[in-house]
Every structure is written in C-alpha cells, then in structure tokens.
Amino acid sequence: MSFYNKISYLLFFAFLFCFNSSAHAHKPSDSYLAASVEESQIKGQWDIALRDLDFAIGLDENANNEITWQEVLNKRQEINAYAFARLHIKNAKINCPITPQKTLIDHHTDGAYAVIRYYASCSEPITNLNFKYTLFADIDPSHRGLLKLDYKGTTKTSVFGPENVIQNFLLEKPNRLTEFKNYLVEGIGHIWAGYDHILFLLSLLLPAVLIRKSDSWQPSPDFKSTFIDVLKVVTAFTIAHSITLTLATLHIISLPSRWVEAAIAASVIVAALNNIFPVILKKRWLAAFVFGLIHGFGFASVLSDLGLQNGSLFIALVGFNVGVEIGQIGILSIYLPVSFALRKTWFYQHVFFYGGSIFIIAIATIWFVERAFNIGLFTFIK
C-alpha cells in the first residue's frame, strides 16, 4: 500500500470516528442566567432546559417522552436543590445566599425551559461580584451558561464553561474585551461541536479537490484553482449565515428551532447527494449561500434567547460570528492541504469521496427524521 493510500485510510477512519461518536446534532446545551444588581440585592431568573434537567434528575415520571407542568411541580424542590448547589455568588469574598422563588415554564427557540426566579442578599453594597457556575459540569462538558448581568443601566455578558467556571465582575468597570473574548471562544466551540455544520462544510469540500470531466470526477490540476473554488464557497456561506445570524439575534426574523434544525439536516443531505449525482457544479458557491442562510438561524440559537441590548448585543454578535469563522478556517486549514495531496489516489476518489458522501447522507437522514418528526431513532448512541 502506498504512503498516500495509508494516509487516506487514516483520514477516512478518523472521519468516521469523529461523526459516528454522535448521531445527534441538536442545539448545544445552554442555560440562561439573568441577574440584576441593586445596592446589596440581586434579583434574577435562571432558564434551564427541561430536557437537560430530565437527563440529570429525571422529570418524566411516566416515561412517555413528554414533560408536563405537573411533573415539573412535583420535582420543583429537587430542581432547585440541584441547580443552586451548582451556582454560588459572592460580593468580594463574602457569600451572598441565594433563595429560589417562583418556578415557571417558558418556551425558547429550542424547546421548553424551567424558569426559576431567585434573589440573593449580600451583607454590603455590591461592588465586586463573583460567580461560580458548575451546572451539568459532571454530565455534559459541552454545556454552557450564558449570563446577562444588569447594573445601573449597563449590561454585561459572559459565558460559563469548563474552562471558566469562576468569573469576577467589577461593576463600576465594564470589560468589553473580556465579553468579546468569551463569545469568540463560544463561536469557535459552537462550530466545532456542531456536527451538522461540519458535515455540510465537508460535503462542499469533498469535491473541491476534484473536477468533473466526461461524467466522472478527476483530480484538480492545481492548488490555485482549488483554493479559489473553496474561497468562493466558504465566502458565500460566511456572508449568508452572518446575515441570518444577525437578523435572528436582533429578533427581526424568528423561525422555530425544530424546523431550522430539520432544514439544516436537509441541506447536508442535498449537498452530499450533489457529490454522487452532480447537478450543481460551477455555482456551488450559490448553493452554499442559500443553505448558509438556513445555517445562520442555527448559529443564532445561542444568542437570540439572551435578550441582549445595545453594546452588549453588538459585542456578543461580532465576537460569536468571528469565532465561528475562526472555527471554519481551522477546519479548512486541516482538511484542504491533506485532501489536495491525496486527490489523485484511488482511495480518495472512490472510497473517501463516495463512501464519505454516502455516510454523510445516512447520518443527515437520521437527523432529518428525528428533527422533522420529533422522534428518537438511535437513542442508544446519544
């Protein structure tokens, strides 16, 4: 076996391993924590997805895959105990005890959430606020907590995750750079954890190192033409999803998350099918633009439920979008040079290209059926 074929096999099986590890590619797990500071008091609410709470403590008592309001009420004390054991607030180094109040239900773009209203009382006027957030840290390392902190008409935002469990806020000194960095990192993580977005990009990249001649795929003659083709596709995708990301985050256009996710899965299927039965060849960038508009709504799901305004919204939107682009560039910088080097091998042209496209179609079809009809097909590989 030649060196290139060995590399091709390694690339192919790495491809299978990465995406076979999860047949589900839904919106990542997020909670939304709001806190409003006035003197020595903090009032706020915490929105936590019922599906996440069900996984952690079990809400669905009759196991019918539907969580009712009564089932939430029955578990109210357990929900509060679980959640607030994983959130701690301090003013400087002094603890501010948190007291949960009402528990309500609200519907976000991706489903039903428990809404826990709370207050925290500090012994002195608050100047240096410290949060420690570890919700679901032991069961879901991809979970993020999105914080909106209001103080004297100013809004600060931040993102909690495994790498930043503890965060500190000097209330009189807003740190916009930190907010930008947090959302930039979140954007990178979102694209790398979004298997549907990655598979869509790969569906477009698989034929990028090939050209269609005499009803068959042939190796691309040079890297320059390949790079220009990829640049057109990625630029069109970037512009498109940036448009709808902005529109959805600003609540100018809002679509149901379930149908957005189903449409994203359908876009992956169509892109991969086009590799096997080519219909769009010279204007793949146009297809990338059209489908990119759909993917933008998927990206926006992280930000649209935060209810940010003014400067905080601008910083979060720009930081997150830049992070998504950096994540995409990371994928391209790894995939494109390797695939170009292997484009002439039989393995790439036949097994990786066609086999990879078929694999993508199979996975995306599972996603589409699950999302469009709200059913679980392979829950054992969640």
Keywords:
12 strands, 2 domains, four-stranded antiparallel beta sheet, alpha+beta, 382 residues, six-stranded mixed beta sheet
Q: Would you write up a description of this structure?
A:
With 382 residues, this protein is an alpha+beta fold. It folds into 2 domains: 3-26 and 194-381, no CATH class; 30-174, no CATH class. 52% of the residues lie in helices and 21% in strands. It contains 11 helices and 12 strands. It has helices at residues 3-20, 50-57, 69-74, 76-84, 176-193, 195-205, 223-249, 257-276, 284-304, 310-342, 346-373; strands at residues 30-38, 41-49, 87-91, 94-95, 98-108, 111-121, 128-133, 144-151, 154-160, 166-170, 210-213, 216-219. The strands form 3 sheets. A 6-stranded mixed β-sheet has the order 5-6-2-1-8-9, sandwiched between helices. A hairpin with a 2-residue loop joins strand 8 and strand 9. The radius of gyration is 23 Å and the shape is elongated. Residues 17-25 have low confidence and may be disordered.
